[in-house]
Amino acid sequence: MTQSSQFTRRHVVTGAATLAGAGLAVSQAASAPAPLPAKWDQEADIVIAGGGVAGCMAAIEAAAAGAKVLLLQATPDLGGNSRISSAWIRSANTRWHKNLGIQDTTEAYAKDIVDYGGGTRDEKKAKVIAEVSGRFVDRLMDYGVKFSDEKDTANGGPTLRVPKVEGRGAAVMAAVGAQVRKTQNITVKTDSKILDVYLDGDKVAGVSADLDGKKVAIKAKAVVLATGGFGRNQKLVEKYTNQWKETFRIMDVEDKGDGLLLASALGAGVANLQVAMVTPLMEYSKRIFYSSLTLLAGAIFVNEQGKRFVNELIIYTTTNTEMLKQKASYQIVCEGLHPMVEEMIKNGVTTRADSIEELAQKLGVPVENIKPEIEEHNRITAMSGKRVDRLGRTVFGKPLKAPFYFLRMHPVMIETVGGITIDDKAQVVTLGGKPVAKGFYAAGAVAFGEHFGRGYRSGDAYVYSGVFGMVAGQESGRYAKA
Ligand SMILES: Cc1cc2nc3c(=O)[nH]c(=O)nc-3n(C[C@H](O)[C@H](O)[C@H](O)COP(=O)(O)OP(=O)(O)OC[C@H]3O[C@@H](n4cnc5c(N)ncnc54)[C@H](O)[C@@H]3O)c2cc1C
Question: Is 1 part of any domain?
Answer without folding.
Answer: no
